[in-house]
Amino acid sequence: MTVKTDIWVFAYGSLMWRPGFDYLESRKVILEGYHRDLCILSHVFRGTPQVPGLVLGLNPGGTCLGVAFRVAGTQVAAVMDYLYEREMVHEVYEPKWVKAMDETGDVLETYTFVSIADHPQYAGHFELDTKVDHVLKGVGQMGRSLEYLENTCRHIRALGIVDEGLESILRAAQAKEMQKID
Fold this sequence. Notes:
By secondary structure, the protein is α+β, with helices and mostly antiparallel strands. It has helices at 76-87, 128-137, 145-158, 164-181, and strands spanning 7-11, 25-42, 53-71, 93-102, 107-115, 139-140, 143-144. Helix 2 crosses helix 4 and helix 3 (145-158) packs across helix 4 (164-181). The relative contact order is 0.22. This is glutathione-specific gamma-glutamylcyclotransferase.
């Protein structure tokens, strides 16, 4: 199937700096009605089923600064297949079309992945200490959950985005990690 129309993909986590697909342009955008959260138990990439780590999800409420990528119509089918394979390993997200606004006020219809709150791997309701424990203990195929969080915060800061929720989890995890060393 060849799509003739370009689409936009909304990225709020590692997809922002490592999309893994070709795109025509990118724009910094704001998504109203959702926020970025460390809310998905990772059983593969940043943890195991026995000792899960945490990765990002998109939850209802608030706002989320992210990046929108414009994908050429001729590449849409391949990019959608790639995104599904990358994001839907355990089907903890719902693929969804949402509206995001760029810095000039243009509204873009974007494709993204929203957390499923009643999925067994959903951890959005966890208290800070529980999230910190998962971040510190989780190690999976792609490395430690703590490295994922540090890398995420570093990259989004470089994009001029500050996410106080993630930063507070990172500060608490780093402090607890330092206590183990002392």
